[in-house]
């Protein structure tokens, strides 16, 4: 089966539909599937359910879909620097399920491992625990968290071979590998595609069995928030 597609639009062809649940990888703006997000925007799909660490920033990343009001529900751990996302949430225009970041990662990992739910101490005694089953283990209270799965995972990796074996670089290992296992269809956009056999098996992070479609993308790799020191401060340190 040929897994290599020419671009994001062709990779999403036949998959994108209104009301679908999408996992989108990356941490902040690092390692996000920029090309697939843009393609979803152009395809005009509506009422999307998004599972992601954050929802991008205004005008970039998942923020593109938020700005276009294509998103109905978001499961996330951080609202981030996205003012429009915050406005829609406060206005009741978008549903948001806030989940502690570690719990979010484990809910995704559990979904990929076929585990329907698990108990955790994180969130006990807070609004996170409201409406959830509580249970005591060894004198400590835990809450039940359900795993997460998606129709499609859109992820970003550094390199792939033609069978979809993936290698990530640095921070892009956040959420992308877990999401690759937790969706019915996984689409990976990469910076380089090499022939089979060119990636050392010991260097593969996500085996190709989890990846259905791949394509080579172009990436802006925008920095979410730049922080600079004043020149005077630099002189004082010197």
Features:
238 residues; alpha/beta; Glutaconate Coenzyme A-transferase; 8-stranded mixed beta sheet; 3-stranded antiparallel beta sheet; 7 helices; globular
If you had to describe this structure to a student in words, what would you say it looks like?
With about 240 residues, the chain is of the alpha/beta class. It has one domain: 3-Layer(aba) Sandwich (Glutaconate Coenzyme A-transferase). Helix content is about 25%, strand content about 25%. The protein is built from seven helices and eleven strands. Strands 1, 2, 3, 4, 8, 9, 10 and 11 form an eight-stranded mixed sheet that branches. A three-stranded antiparallel sheet has the order 5-7-6. The longest helix is centred in the middle third of the chain and has 13 residues, at about 100-115. The radius of gyration is 19 Å and the shape is globular. The mean pLDDT is about 95.
Structural class: alpha/beta
Characterize the largest beta sheet: strand count, sense, and whether it forms a barrel: 8 strands, mixed
Report how far the terminal alpha carbons are from each other: 59 Å
CATH architecture group name: 3-Layer(aba) Sandwich
Which residues form runs of ≥5 with pLDDT under 50? Answer: none
Individual helix count: 7
Using the coordinates shown, work out and report the CATH topology.
Glutaconate Coenzyme A-transferase
Write down the domain tally.
1
CATH top level class name: Alpha Beta
Strand content: 25-35%
The overall pLDDT average reads 94
Relevant CATH superfamily? Glutaconate Coenzyme A-transferase
- Strand count: 11
Could you spell the SSE succession in H and E letters? Answer: HEHEHEHEHEEEEEHEEH
CA radius of gyration is 19 Å
Q: What would you call the shape?
A: globular
Q: State the helicity in percent bands.
A: 10-25%
């Amino acid at each position: 089966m040929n897994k290599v597609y020419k671009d994001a639009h062709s990779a999403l062809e036949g998959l994108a539909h209104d009301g679908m649940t999408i996992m989108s990888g990356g941490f902040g703006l690092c390692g996000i599937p920029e090309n697939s997000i843009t393609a979803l925007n152009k395809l005009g799909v509506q009422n999307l359910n998004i599972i992601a660490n954050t929802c991008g920033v205004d005008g970039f990343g998942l923020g593109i879909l938020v700005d276009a009001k294509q998103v109905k529900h978001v499961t996330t751990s951080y609202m981030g620097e996205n003012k429009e996302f915050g406005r829609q949430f406060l206005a009741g225009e978008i549903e948001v399920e806030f989940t502690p970041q570690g719990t979010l990662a484990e809910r995704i990992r559990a979904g990929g491992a076929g585990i329907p739910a698990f108990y955790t101490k994180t969130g006990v005694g807070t609004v996170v625990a409201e409406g959830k089953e509580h249970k005591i283990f060894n004198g400590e209270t835990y809450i039940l968290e359900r795993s997460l799965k998606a129709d499609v995972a859109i992820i970003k990796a550094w390199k792939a071979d033609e069978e979809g074996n993936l290698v990530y670089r640095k921070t892009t290992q956040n959420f992308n590998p877990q999401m690759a296992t937790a969706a019915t269809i996984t689409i990976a956009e990469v910076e380089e595609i090499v022939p089979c056999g060119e990636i050392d098996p010991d260097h593969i992070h996500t085996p190709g069995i989890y990846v259905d479609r791949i394509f080579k993308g172009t990436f802006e790799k925008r920095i979410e928030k730049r922080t600079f020191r004043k020149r005077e401060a630099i002189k004082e340190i010197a």
